[in-house]
Every structure is written in C-alpha cells, then in structure tokens.
C-alpha cells in the first residue's frame, strides 16, 4: 500500500490515552485527570435542547451559524469585555473550539509557515499547526514566572517564516492567566513582525483573581487576532460541541469557506441550546464559577500543606503543582500514583517540555473527592 | 463561598440569630427515602381557604389565628380564587380531615376550604428529591 499522510503518521498519539486505559480498569479511581466540568449542563439549557428536538430543529443551519446566536455572542463579548465584532461577517459558529482552532490555522497558514506556541499548553495546539501544514515552534514558559509568556523569548524564536503566535489564557494545563502586560508585549511583537495572534479563550469566564483580558480588545490587536471561544467550559456543554470564531472579516470569511465544505454547520439543536445559554439566566454559570473557586482555594492550600509547591492557578479549573520534591519524573509520578493510590492526574510532560516536573490536577471534581485525593497523594508522597 | 473572613461570617450569623432573622436550622428530609415506620408517617395537605375580610385588619387576624395551630406548617395570603394557602400535616388522612372540618372551616369568617392531599414530593425548599445526576465523563480527558 502507498504511504499514508506523513505529517499525521509522524504525530505521536496523545500521552493522555495511556492513563485513560489504566484508569478505566479500576473502579475506585478518583480522577483529577478530567478536562471538563463535573457539572451537567444547566437544566434550562438542556430543556431548550429537548424543545428543539421535539419541534424538529434537526436540519442544517446557515454555514456561519444561527444569526440569533451570533448576535448574542457578539453582544456578550461587547458587554463583558468591550470587544466589538459584527455578527454578520466577523463571527461564525463552530463545532467546538477544536474545530475553530483547526479552521483558524488552516486559513492562516501556508505550507511551512511557523507558529510560535508557548508551552506547556493544550495538547492539540502543536498537532493542529502541523495538520494545517505549518511548523509549530515551541517556546518555554517558567513556573517561577507563573507561566507568563516572556516576549523576549518569543522574539528570539521569530524567524522569516513565522506567521502567528498561538496562545491560550486562562490556560490548560497550568491554570495560568497571562498578565495584561505580557499580552500587550505579544501584540507589540505581532505588530512589529506582522504576525497573527490566535487566542484560545475557552476558559475566559473562569478567572478568579482578576477580570479576563480579551486579546481582541488590546490596542493594535483586533486586526490581527483570531478569537476562539465556546460554551464547553463555563456553561458545562462539552458534549454539545458549540464554539465560535470572532475575527476580522477577511479571516472570518475564509474560515466560513473551509467550514462550509468540511463541517457545513455546528449541530442545530446545540446552537439552539447555546442561544438559551446566553439569553437565559446566568445564575447557574455564576454558581459553578463560585464553586470552582471554592474548590481551587481548598485544593491548592491542601497541595501546599502536603508539601507540593503549587503556583497560584488564577483561571480554568486546573492546578499544576511541582512534584520535583518527589524525585520522580512526571510520567512515573502519575503512573505510580494511579497504580498505588488510584488517583489519576496527568503528567505535565504531556503538555510540553516545560511541563516536566509538574502534574495537572483538575479540580472540576466534588470537594469531598478532592479532599480524599489529597489524603491519598499525601500517603503516596510519604511512601516514596 | 462569600469571600469574607471566617470571623466576619460567624459574627454576621450570630447577629442574625440574635435578631431573629435566622429563626432556626432544620434538616430537609426526603421522607420517601426513609425506611417506612408506620408510627412516624405523616400526611400533608394544601388547604385553600376563602375568607371574608374585616375592616381595619383585612385577613390578618384570621390568618394569624390559623397559623397558631401546630398542625399548620405554613400560611400564605395568595392571589387567585382563594385567599389563604395553608400547609397542614397530620398522622393520618382522618386527622387532617378532622382538623379542616372541625377547626379550620368553623373559624368565624372562613367561608370555604379546598383540601389537596400531597401524594408525592418531588422538590421542597429548593431541594429536588430526584436521583442525582450521573457522572458520564471519561476518567482522563485532555
């Protein structure tokens, strides 16, 4: 047989998979390895989905997505962050941020174009760049700096083929929120070198210590920023697969063009549920955010008490403690912890070389389970 | 939860307890989930009461009089076809019926009552007595 696609064949499978397989065989696992809310979608949103099914909204929508949903998204961005996007022409509905990221990179990149990706970062960033024909160029961030992106390090990585910088804030896996000054420095770099900025803001509403900075609102950023967002995290709607892209019309138009040939549209029922998520009461979302914050404070305090140094996670729902005192690398630590104490965490190395020496712990887990997990991790550390 | 220091929250609670803003603390029990003990079984009914108002007091005096009965768990003045909506509990249907016919209906200015016995409780005071949501997530996801 002829060779399959070399880029895809060369892409290693996600390092998370192995831990899933081990954990799946155990029945008393406390999983801190889950990258999605433990809440079910708020009932009024589910009810809107049921209503949509009952009334037969089972068809395609327009390629860009329901006009009402695009209007609501743009209005929400405007009131929440002061970001101004036109529902017609600068906004499209995607099948989750995952599709949005894929579309954005395919539209921005020509073969061989480089994308600077600060790491540790979400596992899909570098593979999506490669699948789009680009070359991911990782730049490290340091936990001593709270994983803030150092613009000097980024500047040193910029070459003649550099096309874009891809950044997620608040971040999976670190929970880090990029300081406004760090983002402003990136915008200045992007202006100097005529680069695009791809900003994954799926965790934008999950910030606990300061308001979220929407990259598209920074001076000079809007014309070169592709903003990605969605409903999965804040609205606990991971399985509905609804996200969005807001970008300058030239970029958004081409995103719609790829989307219309590959995806056609995001699921109609899910789009109608998302309309309810934005037009209905926000109480459930605010209650979930408050709950994450409560767990965050308890869990981070607990990690520090059992001797794991943990940078303050200011957003998302992840803690990224240092496990260097254990003397183990992150993969060994995660595997031994899972096998001996049945606590699943994700090794930091999965998210890039700078993640080594850390493990990702999701606190999208009920408080009593977090407390039990802390006891088990403590016992594990003492046994080393 | 509140973002306030523990001492501040304790002081606020103590103040409300002293002023009577917090009346008492109670458990919210799903009695259907408790093993059935025939001696502890209770019957609940909602009673709609129509009243003749009186000059100067409206419905307040009769409502207060009804509220004094231990069998009466709640009394609200409501809009609609009746004036008061009361919750009444008793050990048996007969006990509730007797209370309504002999005590409640015979109060001066009570013109009519309509009794609705509770057959099953699905939610009370914001607590749903339905099975908890299942966690359908995979154990490890990106």
Percent helix range of chain A: 40-55%
- Outline type of chain A: globular
The major β-sheet of chain B equals: 4 strands, antiparallel
Low-confidence runs of chain B: none
User: Sheet with the most strands of chain A?
Assistant: 7 strands, mixed
Which two chains touch over the largest interface?
A-B, 22 and 9 residues
End-to-end C-alpha gap of chain A? 50 Å
- What's the end-to-end separation of chain B, in Å? 28 Å
> Rg of chain A from C-alpha positions?
21 Å
Number of strands of chain A: 12
The low-pLDDT segments of chain A are: none
Task: Describe it.
- The complex is a heterodimer of chains A (384) and B (142).
- Chain A is 42% helix and 13% strand.
- Chain A starts with 5 loop residues before the first helix and ends with a helix.
- The relative contact order of chain A is 0.18.
- Chain A is an alpha/beta fold.
- By secondary structure, chain B is of the alpha+beta class.
- In chain B, 24% of the residues lie in helices and 24% in strands.
- Chain B has a 4-stranded antiparallel β-sheet with strand order 2-3-1-4. In chain B, strands 5-6 form a two-stranded antiparallel sheet.
- The two termini of chain B are 28 Å apart.
- The model of chain B has no long low-confidence stretch (mean pLDDT 90).
- The interface between A and B is medium-sized, with 22 and 9 residues.
Write the layout of secondary structure elements.
The complex is a heterodimer of chains A (384) and B (142).
Chain A: H1 6-10, H2 16-24, E1 30-31, H3 43-54, H4 67-81, E2 91-94, H5 96-108, E3 114-119, H6 125-131, E4 135-140, H7 151-157, E5 162-168, H8 180-193, E6 196-200, E7 225-230, E8 243-246, H9 249-262, H10 268-279, H11 283-305, E9 318-319, H12 330-341, E10 343-344, E11 346-347, E12 359-362, H13 367-383
Parallel strand pairs in A: 1-10, 3-4, 3-5, 5-6, 6-7
Antiparallel strand pairs in A: 2-8, 7-8, 9-12, 11-12
Helix pairs in contact in A: 3-10, 4-10, 5-6, 5-9, 11-13
Chain B: H1 6-19, E1 43-51, H2 60-67, E2 72-77, E3 84-90, H3 93-104, E4 110-117, E5 123-124, E6 127-128
Antiparallel strand pairs in B: 1-3, 1-4, 2-3, 5-6
């Amino acid at each position: 047989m002829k060779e399959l696609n070399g880029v895809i064949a060369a892409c290693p499978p996600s390092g998370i998979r192995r831990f899933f397989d081990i954990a799946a065989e155990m029945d008393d696992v406390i999983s801190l390895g889950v990258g999605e809310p433990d809440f079910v979608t708020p009932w009024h949103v589910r009810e809107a989905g049921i209503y949509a099914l009952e009334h037969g909204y089972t068809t395609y929508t327009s390629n860009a997505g329901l006009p009402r949903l695009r209007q609501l998204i743009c209005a929400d961005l405007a009131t929440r962050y002061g970001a101004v996007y036109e529902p017609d022409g600068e906004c499209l509905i995607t099948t989750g941020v995952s599709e949005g990221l894929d579309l954005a990179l395919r539209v921005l990149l020509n073969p061989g174009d480089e994308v600077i990706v600060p790491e540790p970062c979400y596992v899909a960033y570098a593979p999506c760049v490669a699948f789009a024909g680009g070359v991911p160029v990782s730049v490290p961030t340091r936990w001593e700096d709270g994983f803030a992106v150092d613009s000097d390090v980024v500047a040193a990585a910029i070459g003649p083929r550099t096309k874009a910088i891809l950044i997620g804030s608040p971040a999976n896996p670190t929970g880090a929120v990029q300081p406004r000054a760090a983002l402003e420095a990136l915008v200045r770099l992007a202006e100097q070198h005529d680069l695009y900025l791809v900003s994954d803001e799926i965790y934008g509403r999950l910030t606990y210590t300061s308001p979220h900075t929407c990259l598209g609102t920074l001076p000079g950023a809007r014309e070169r920023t592709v903003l990605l967002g969605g409903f999965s995290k804040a609205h606990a709607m991971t399985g509905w697969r609804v996200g969005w892209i807001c970008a300058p019309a030239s970029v958004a138009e081409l995103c719609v063009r790829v989307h219309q040939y590959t995806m056609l549209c995001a699921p109609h029922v899910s789009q109608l549920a998302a309309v309810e998520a934005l037009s209905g009461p926000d109480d459930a979302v605010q209650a979930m955010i408050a709950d994450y914050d409560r767990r965050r404070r308890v869990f981070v305090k607990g990690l520090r008490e059992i001797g794991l140094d943990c940078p303050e996670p200011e957003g998302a729902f992840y803690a990224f403690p240092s496990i260097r005192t254990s003397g183990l690398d992150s993969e060994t630590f995660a595997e031994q912890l899972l096998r001996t104490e049945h606590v699943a965490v994700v090794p930091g190395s999965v998210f890039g070389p700078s993640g080594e020496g850390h493990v990702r712990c999701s606190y999208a887990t009920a408080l009593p389970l977090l407390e039990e997990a802390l006891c088990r991790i403590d016992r594990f550390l003492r046994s080393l | 939860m509140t973002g306030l220091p523990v001492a501040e929250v304790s002081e606020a609670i103590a103040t409300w307890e002293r002023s009577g803003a917090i009346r008492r603390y109670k458990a919210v029990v799903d009695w259907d989930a408790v093993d059935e003990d025939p001696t502890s079984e209770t019957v609940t009914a909602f009673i709609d009461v129509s009243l003749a108002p009186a000059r100067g007091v409206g419905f307040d005096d009769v409502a207060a009089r009804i509220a004094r009965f231990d069998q009466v768990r709640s009394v609200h003045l409501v809009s609609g076809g009746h004036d008061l909506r009361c919750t009444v509990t008793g050990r048996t249907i007969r006990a509730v019926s007797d209370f309504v016919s002999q005590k409640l209906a015979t109060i001066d200015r009570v013109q009519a009552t309509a009794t609705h016995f509770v057959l099953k409780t699905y939610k009370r005071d914001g607590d749903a007595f339905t099975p908890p949501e299942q966690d359908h997530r995979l154990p490890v996801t990106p």
